[in-house]
Structure formats: C-alpha cells, structure tokens
Design brief:
The protein starts with 5 loop residues before the first strand and ends with a helix. It has a two-stranded antiparallel sheet with strand order 1-2. Strands 3-4 form a two-stranded antiparallel ribbon. Helix 4 (about 100-130) packs across helix 5. It has 2 domains: about 20-95, no CATH class; about 100-140. The protein is mainly alpha-helical and about 140 residues long. Residues about 130-135 have low confidence and may be disordered. It is built from 5 helices and 4 strands. Strand 3 and strand 4 form a beta hairpin. It binds zinc ion (2 copies).
Length: about 140
Amino acid sequence: MGTPQLKNCPKCGKLFLLIRNICDNCYQKQEDDFLKAAAYLREHSGITIQELSDETGVSVSQIRHFIWAGRILVDNFPNLSYPCETCGNMIHKGRKCSSCMDTLKKLANQVEKREAKAEGDRSHEQKGLAGGYISHYLKEKGEM
Ligand SMILES: [Zn+2]
Ligand SMILES: [Zn+2]
C-alpha cells in the first residue's frame, strides 16, 4: 500500500500515521463508545438516540455514525431515530429525510438539464470552430 502517510486526525487534530481515517486514540475512544452504546441499547431497546447519548455520554452524531456504518441496526430499536444530516429532522433510514431527498433530486434534475443544455450549446460551437479545427490539425500531423 505505498509509503505510510502522516495526517492530522479529523477528530482531535493530532498528527498520526495514516492507517485508519482517524488516530489510534480516537479510534480507541470510538470503539469504547460503540461498546458502551451497544451494551446500553441491548438493555434498553425502546430508547431514543437522545436518551442513549445522555446515558452513555456518546454524542448523537457519533451514534448516528455507527448507524450509518451499519454497526447499530435501527430496525431493532423502534424509537431510535436520528437527525437527517441536512435539516435535522428525525429519520429512521438512510442519511437524509425524504423531503431533503426530494429537494436534492429536484436540484440534481435542474443541474442535469442545465448541463445538457450547455453541452448542446457547446457542441454546436465546437463543430463549427475548435472541434473541426483540432481534428483537421491532427489529421494533417498524421496523429489521427
Ligand atoms: Zn484523533
Ligand atoms: Zn432532511
């Protein structure tokens, strides 16, 4: 895997050898947090994410990460919803709530349409100018 790299840990800012995406200290802490949260959940399966965070001292966003990573299976815990990463609405699946997904889809569609249109305009120009010129030029040099 190439030469080892040094990187600043995104969690604590400490310089560390890039083996995982966070430093050993933070990794250890994350594993402790996970064990704590998972153990507590086993005993209290009807708990909300806020209660879980209050009881274990593990932050809501850290718990949410465990859920996204598939380490905590929300399906087993009826009240364990977590904030949508965009608007903070409580959700039970995925990273975003359905309304954020809708908004995103609409935006993506708009961008796509705009790009398709721009692409269309550009290809017109290119046929007339640069594109034709370059292929002509390459042909003359015997590179096409
Ligand atoms: Zn760290
Ligand atoms: Zn949302």
